[in-house]
Amino acid sequence: MQHVVFNQKGGVGKSTITCNLAAISAWQGQRTLVIDLDSQGNSTRYLLGSDTTEDQPNVAEFFEQSLKFTVRDKPAGDYIVNTRWEGLDLMPSSPLLDELHGKLESRHKIYKLRDALAQLADDYDQIYIDTPPALNFYTRCALIAAQGCLIPFDCDDFSRRALYALLENVAEIKADHNPGLVVEGIIVNQFQARANLPQRMVKELIDEGLPVLQPYLRASVKIRESHEQSLPMIFLDPRHPLTQELVALHDALR
Questions:
Q1: Residue range 26-37, pLDDT digits in tens
Q2: How many CA atoms lie within 13 A of 184 on its CB side?
Q3: In angstroms, how far apart are the furthest CA atoms of the chain?
Q4: Distance in angstroms (rounded) separating the CA atoms of residues 119 and 113
C-alpha cells in the first residue's frame, strides 16, 4: 500500500505521522519505505539522525536524472538508503528539491514518482510519502502516484478551513489523474481530550460525514524527545500511551 501524508498547512505533524506509521510497519515485519519529498527534510533527519550525509543518494537526484538526456535512467532503488532498523528504508530529501521544482514542472515530469513506485512495488509492502506544506509539483506527484491519502489535522480553526480546500484538491487530482486514489482518513493530531474546542471541532467533522480516524493522537512532550533522539515512538517507548495510539491507528488502516 502506498500512502501520501498531506496537508497544505505546516506544523500539523506530517513528518511525525509519516515516520511513526512507517516505523510501526517495519516493527511488525513489513518491508517499508519512506519517501521524503519535503525540502526541509524533517523525515530524513528523524529516521537517519546523525547518519545524514550530503553525499547520500536522495530523491532530488532521482528527479534530476529525468532532466538529463540519458539512454536509460538509474532504477529508483539506487536512490534509497537503509535506516538502522531492519525493514525500514528511506529515499532521503535534499534542499535541491527547491531548485529543481520549476524545471521539473516545465518539463512535465509529474508522473516520474508514479513510475518509480511501480518499479518498487515488489520490494515493499508499505510506502509512506511525506510531502511539503503546499500543493506544489512534488505533492501532486505523490497524490498521482499513491493509493491512499492521510490528512493530519491539529484541531484549530486554520486547519479546519484548509481542510475543505485540501479535500477538493485531492478530489480533483483523483478525477483527472488517479482514479484509484482514496482518502484513507483524517488523523486527529495533538488532541487534548479535556479541552472543549478540540472535542467540538472533531465532532463537527464527524457530523459532516468526513472520514475521521480513531484513535486520536494525544498531545505529548514525549514526541519532542522522540524527535531529538531520532527515534520513532515504537523504538523509543513502545508502552507509552501515544505509541499505543499510533499502533492502533496504524492497524486501523489495514
A1: 999 999 999 999
A2: 24
A3: 60
A4: 10
Residues 252 and 214: their CA atoms lie apart, in Å, by 8
**36: Cα separation from own chain's centroid:** 7
Check: CB of residue 29 under 8 Å from CB of residue 84: no
User: What is the Cα–Cα distance from 12 to 15, expressed in whole angstroms?
Assistant: 9
pTM attached to this predicted model: 0.96
Q: Are 76 and 52 within 8 A, CB to CB?
A: no
Closest CA to 250 of 30, 10, 37, 89: 30
Question: Which H or E run contains 55?
Answer: none
pLDDT at residue 51, rounded to an integer: 80
Let me know: does 65 contact 159? Beta carbons within 8 Å.
Answer: no
Q: 175 burial class (0-12, 13-18, 19+ CB within 10 angstroms)?
A: exposed
Neighbours of 96 (CB within 10 A): 15
Give yes or no for a cis peptide into 232 (omega within 30° of 0).
no
The string of pLDDT tens digits covering residues 133-183 is 999 999 999 999 999 999 999 888 788 888 999 999 999 999 999 999 999
Task: Please report the DSSP string for 10-53 in residue order.
Answer: SSS-HHHHHHHHHHHHHHTT--EEEEE--TT-HHHHHHHGGG--
- Which residues have C-beta within 8 Å of that of residue 225, sequence separation ≥ 6? 236
Give dist(CA 231, CA 213) in Å, integer. Answer: 24
Domains and CATH numbers, the chain: 2-252 (3.40.50.300)
Q: Phi and psi (nearest 5°) for 126?
A: -135, 135
